[in-house]
Amino acid sequence: QVQLVESGGGLVQPGGSLRLSCVASEFYTFSRDAMSWYRQAPGKERELVAFISSGGGRIYADSVKGRFIIPRDNAKNTVSLQMNSLKAEDTAVYYCHAQAGYWGQGTQVTVSS
């Protein structure tokens, strides 16, 4: 059973930064899979935030371009989401997703003063 475990969420003031991490379990060909971060705010649909292919190509939602970065470390089976210049509208539960069809449990990010 493949597991994706997220960490790094929390409460941050507007303009601040957070770094989320997602670690995939060992028995999984992480390096061959595209990875994404999604988020879901209360009352809204889950939306794609950032995507990174197995080759390192990246796609970002327009709302986070220039503020968020999605790096991956294949040696550690880890994909991260570096979030800078956070806004109140970034408040949501953030989910790690593997294109093979796996989801993490989600981690809450709250941006508030």
What does the model show?
With 113 residues, the chain is mainly beta. Helix content is 0%, strand content 47%. The protein has no helices and twelve strands. It has strands spanning 4-7, 10-12, 18-24, 35-40, 47-52, 58-60, 68-69, 72-73, 78-83, 92-98, 102-103, 107-111. The strands form two sheets. Strands 2, 4, 5, 6, 10, 11 and 12 form a seven-stranded mixed β-sheet that branches. Strands 1, 3, 7, 8 and 9 form a five-stranded antiparallel β-sheet that branches. Strand 4 (35-40) and strand 5 form a beta hairpin.
Labels describing this entry:
113 residues, five-stranded antiparallel sheet, 12 strands, seven-stranded mixed sheet, globular, mainly beta
Task: Show unreliable segments.
Answer: none
Please tell me how large the radius of gyration is: 13 Å
Helical segment tally? 0
Count of extended strands: 12
Provide the helix percentage.
under 10%
Distance between the termini: 40 Å
**What profile does the largest beta sheet have?**
7 strands, mixed
What is the overall shape?
Answer: globular
Average pLDDT for all residues: 96
Order of helices and strands: EEEEEEEEEEEE
The helix-and-strand class reads mainly beta
Content of β-strand: over 45%
